Amino acid sequence: MDLRVIGEWIDEQEWLETAAAVTQAGVKGFFNALGEARRPIKNFLNGTWLGHPLHPVATDIPLGAWTVTLLLDAIENGDRRSGVARAADASLALGLAGAAASAVSGLTDWSDTDARPRRVGMAHAILNVGGTLLFAGSLFSRKQGCRMTGKTLAIAGYLSIITAAYLGGELVYHEQIGVDHSSGKEMPDEKFAAVLAEEKLPEGKLTRALYKDTPILLVRLGRKIYALAETCAHLGGPLSEGKLEGDTVICPWHASTFELDSGKVVSGPSAFPQPCLEARIRDGHVEVRTSRR
């Protein structure tokens, strides 16, 4: 079976865009209602503290736990009091707990998407919610003594989350959601390279320069010259079109905020720091090289 037909089918479903717009507005409204707590909570869920998105880490818990559930279901003898049956039920419950963490982190990442990724992400979420409800029904049936019904619901739930996982791969590997958009760019090595005439770098203005085909962000603040990769790590936004705030730069697309002197993430949704370069002025030109820090 060619699973690409799933993506093609999603592209034809206009109702997904409507549902996505409403859901995304609700998620953003929730975070805005948190006030000052919004930034630390969103940063945690985006995974800025982890160095990459939290969501793929969280998804391993329910997927792994429910895989164990199905394996134990296959070998248990129908006695719900047996150790194997109890272990199957326990792994099922663990998966439900992990699904909650996965859903919250996933919604947080998804709330900053648009166009096709937003629509695919909506389908991904619907399938995961459906799968989770089927597993919840499976646990309830088991507790009521209907183990065969519980096993059937678990199989249906697993098929749903596996399909959702395929769409998750579509988001990462095709739409490049959750990857570091600043990596893989050609940067100067240990030798300084001229990228801009000094006269073209005004005080306190975000300025775009080029090293070969790689855009570099330059900022002059007093006697200090800062240099970062200009392509935002989150979704590739142009930092030179963003906002300079103190010694930080704010991406114009989704407001990821980075320290100028280190590239460290101050505020997400980016989970990745910006590549940082050393900069100096020599012979009337701004020169940069890969930071040695």
Written overview of the protein:
With 293 residues, the chain is of the alpha+beta class. The chain folds into two domains: 4-174; 193-290, 3-layer Sandwich (Rieske Iron-sulfur Protein). The protein has helices spanning 4-11, 14-33, 38-46, 55-75, 83-110, 115-143, 147-174, and strands spanning 193-197, 207-211, 214-221, 224-229, 243-245, 248-250, 257-259, 265-267, 276-282, 285-290. The strands form two sheets. The protein has a six-stranded antiparallel beta sheet, with no helix packed on it. A four-stranded antiparallel beta sheet has the order 5-6-7-8. It is elongated.
Total count of strands:
10
- Element-by-element helix/strand order: HHHHHHHEEEEEEEEEE
- Which spans of ≥5 residues are poorly predicted at pLDDT below 50? none
**How many distinct domains?**
2
Put simply, the count of helices is: 7
Which structural class should the secondary elements be placed in?
alpha+beta
- How large a portion of the residues is in β-strands, by DSSP E? 15-25%
Short summary:
The protein is 49% helix and 17% strand.
Keywords:
6-stranded antiparallel beta sheet; elongated; 7 helices; Rieske Iron-sulfur Protein; 4-stranded antiparallel beta sheet; 293 residues; alpha+beta; 49% helix; 10 strands
